[in-house]
């Protein structure tokens, strides 16, 4: 589980050190920085797939994503990191050094480090990279060169020798398990409304196309009772049925109806709730699941049922919910007392955490560039 996420110089996140627990809810006004946090978490996950540099390029490069407010001094540097009880990771992006290239929006990785434990200190370092060279520490506290990387390749994705770097490999696989769900489509042409070829689906896809197969998988090898309870909480007396003739299709049988409604007939809110049920009741829970505005399209009466779903999921997976809905936050607090509610605000263009002073921040240290 992550204890801390740290971001520096990314959009309005000039300097953010975020404490995390099992169930975390991030709120704040429009423009306070909630979406920037969501994107920063995605960038960290992209590092494990060697996609952070290209993701930053798609955002317009460092010039478009860097903090643009006062107090900006020194070399261009965008930093991302996280730490838990067992491992920590940090990466520092800077401007490219090559002058003759058409890919001038691609930033370079200036440094990366992995350490053991919650706090970065020299004795805890396991792997470090300065521009191109990756060094690994062995059991005798001796550093050995492990690889020479291109400046746009992450050591988290490129160095994965199970003998020389088992910790790096373990960390990479854990980060790759993180899941992100953001405004899954429920419009008329949404993939979730269409019959699909079905196969066992342990994890709902990001577009929800395999909703029917994911729900059927939960019913057969997951927690069918939890699925039935989640549907009944939201739509009393109703139950989900999956048609499997030819292609898989979601249907919802409701009291008083002579036939089950197909996915094409469901309201946006009803379909979205079923998508959240499939995502959160997965038989293969992620180490971290991040939900961006899950209340979208849901009637307020569905928020207690959604809160119950999220609270149940937080027993198996660390959850971060980014939301505008005070009602959802309150419903989560009623379901689970240990909710880490974090409110963002913006002062002089900079995102800060309401009520957090310097002494309240988790311990965090950025690695120096080599």
Automatic annotation (TrEMBL):
Keywords assigned by UniProt, alphabetized: ATP-binding, DNA damage, Nucleotide-binding, SOS response
SUPFAM superfamilies: P-loop containing nucleoside triphosphate hydrolases
Annotated ATPase AAA-type core domain residues: 23-330
GO terms (BP aspect): DNA synthesis involved in DNA repair; double-strand break repair; SOS response
Top-level taxon of origin: Bacteria
MF terms in GO: ATP binding; ATP hydrolysis activity
Name of the protein this chain belongs to: ATP-binding protein
